[in-house]
Amino acid sequence: MLHRVDCESNYNRGVGKTWILDTATKGTGASVVPLDRVQKPAKPSGDKLYVPPPPAPKKEPEPAPRHPRAFKVVDVVTRETLAEHADTRTTLHLLRGIRSIVDVHVSVHDPATDTWRLLSLSEQRALWEARNRVA
Q1: Do the beta carbons of residue 19 and residue 35 sit within 8 Å?
Q2: Could you tell me if 60 and 53 are in contact, meaning their C-beta atoms sit under 8 angstroms apart?
Q3: Fewer CB in 10 Å around end: N or C, the chain?
Q4: Are 70 and 87 in contact (CB under 8 A)?
Q5: Cβ-proximal residues to 108 (8 Å cutoff; 6+ apart), any chain
Q6: Residue boundaries of the structural domains of the chain
């Protein structure tokens, strides 16, 4: 005689046991056993838990002292150097006597590579706008 199993009533009972294949048996076979029978509960050890101390804060290296900026101003038309290794104040005073921002090329000295880098137009415009603010 066949009995019909009501699936909905089995579903409402909750999750069943987890079963695994136990191959630790002697002989040729293995058996399916509940997982909780095979697992051994973890036993607390008598040792204290080691918690390492927090790491010591790392010191940031001191930044290298920054050299004062040195500027080079060259007339575009004559290619004459109007100032070389001039500080910011001297460069701003020199730019007061220039008619237009496009009449000169302004470069800044890079002491790390000992080269001159031409300022971008926006950098040169910032100098141009600051020329009248310096005393």
Answers
A1: yes
A2: no
A3: N
A4: yes
A5: 69, 70, 71, 72, 116, 117, 119
A6: 10-38, 71-130
| Strand runs labelled E in 67-103 | 71-75, 81-86
pTM exceeds cut of 0.70:
no
Q: What tokens were used for 113?
A: 């590579």
Per-residue DSSP letter, 34:
E
**Are the CB atoms for 21 and 35 separated by under 8 Å?**
no
CB 99 within 8 A of CB 111: no
User: For each of the chain's 135 residues, which pLDDT tens digit applies?
Assistant: 444 444 455 555 556 778 877 777 677 677 777 877 766 766 777 778 888 999 999 999 998 888 899 999 999 999 999 999 999 999 999 999 999 999 999 999 998 899 999 999 999 999 999 988 876
CA 110/CA 68 separation, integer angstroms? 10
Find where tokens 């000992």 sit.
Answer: 114
